[in-house]
Amino acid sequence: MRVPELGFVVFASLALVAACGKGDVSEKVSQGKANVFRYPIVTTPTSLDPGIVQDGDTIDLIQQVFEGLVAWGENNQPVPNLATGWTISPDGKTYTFTIKKGVKFHNGRELEAEDFKFAMERTCNPKFNSQTAENYLGDIVGVMDKLHGKAKNISGISAPDKTTLKITIDKPRPHFLGKLTYPCAFAVAREATPAGEIRSVKEMIGTGPYRAESYTPDQIFVLGANKDYHGGTISVDRIERPVVKDAATRLNMYKNGEIDLVQLERQDVKGLRNDPKLKDHLKFFVRPAIWYVGFNLKAYPPFADLRVRKAFTMAVDRESIVRDILDGINVVADGILPPGVIGHRDNPPGFKYNPEEARKLLAEAGFAGGKGLPALELTFREQRPDIRVVAEAVASQLKKNLGVEVSLRTMEWRAYLEKHNAKKQVFFHMRWAADYLDPQNFLSLMLSTNGNENKTYYSNGQVDALCEKADADMNQEERLALYQKAEDLILADAAWIPIYFQKDAELINPRVQGLRESLFGHLPHTTVRLLP
Fold first, then answer.
1. Per-residue model confidence as pLDDT tens digits over 491-506
2. Residue 59 lies in a domain
3. CATH number of the domain residue 151 falls in
4. CATH code: domain of residue 260
5. 24 pLDDT tier (thresholds 50, 70, 90)
6. What is the pLDDT of residue 14?
7. What per-residue confidence (pLDDT) applies to 33?
8. Statement to judge: residues 131 and 157 lie in one domain
9. Long-range contacts at 301-308 (CB < 8 A, ≥ 24 apart)
10. Domain membership of residue 463 as a residue range
11. Is the pLDDT of residue 275 over 80?
């Protein structure tokens, strides 16, 4: 993401000064923008294309414009959306969806089953270079041939008529419907969507509750209510998403009534809890996400030594990070699977903080006191204070407990993701948030040898075998036992340094009513209304 343009930053700063001391939050919100829902996006949107997007901040924007066959409900289960329902064949491999009648794209044309076939085949075109297509569509018969340029079409997707879509997968998979909630499976208008990446609001033609109206890069994205929305009347006239990368600026904008909702950094929560005007605006949300530090075993050869990874893991005091740096809001991550994901355990067997044992292991590996280790850099995304302070703490503890010098480097978000996708991040702090509440989305996808999100070259044949068997096991008890064994092996291998499970803190103005919640975050704003 690009650095915000200077003009916008100055304008925002002047606006804050001008607003200071004039009335309370609710009064300022109501001045001229009574029916506009305003909340910032903390980074430049990484893509305007549902087939390309892969980060949560941008997905929140995309899902207001585009929709899929199914969506997440407030019960954290897939529910009908553009499909009114579906049937599954006796062998568990063919899903037949009935497309909802009367749904219109933002250009006025009625949705047809063929639009889904077009959208998924577009996403799986090897020239399109989607980083998410294989992750979420790869179970569909013929997708791999399409992705590798061996087939023109996806044989496992057919649209026998305008309201029927059939999808055949390679084997029964209990988590498959959850995958179809991801944007790369969303419908796009085939006559209006380019073969390449969508790069302008004019090309964002979806069926969602809001239309993309305008986007000034690095400044603001504006969405207008879709008056023809198939899901009912949209009460809000417009959504405005100013791009505000600085956390302090975001908070000040909220205090000055310029935005209605803001996600907080942990450093601000303590003061807000004691603020008589804002403490009742403070809300907390548990998210099925883990923040961790990753090792690239090929890019940094010492990480290929289990003793080095164990030493680094045992030298990081996660409890102090959560307690002292993150103000105790989050939960220490002892394992990989977060709360909310089936198979999560409170105390899986992992490595506890033990600096003395860590020093012994590093010495056994030939790097006593950190001597002999190549230069090491810890990378993380820009403009997020919580991420920075955790990275600083990790580097400080490695220096204190092991004598290892670690430099720090922030990166612009899209550039960070591109380097991560290329498996070139060496030592990095980031998160993985569930796209569906299944261990497959973590263990198989990120930590099996050939998992599409395995960016670290971690490999354990036993983990691979356990995950492969569990992925296709329709017996819940059996598959969770398999995943538990796999997670135990991953923790014993110190594949990651788990740090904490995510809990969001937000300020939400009481005038905002009707927000729909799920573990995944705020659901598309179909029922939001704004009090005067």
1. 999 999 999 999 999 9
2. no
3. 3.90.76.10
4. 3.40.190.10
5. low
6. 34
7. 72
8. yes
9. 301/374, 302/365, 302/367, 302/373, 302/374, 303/427, 305/365, 306/493, 306/494, 307/361, 307/362, 307/364, 307/365, 308/361, 308/362, 308/365, 308/367
10. 285-504
11. yes
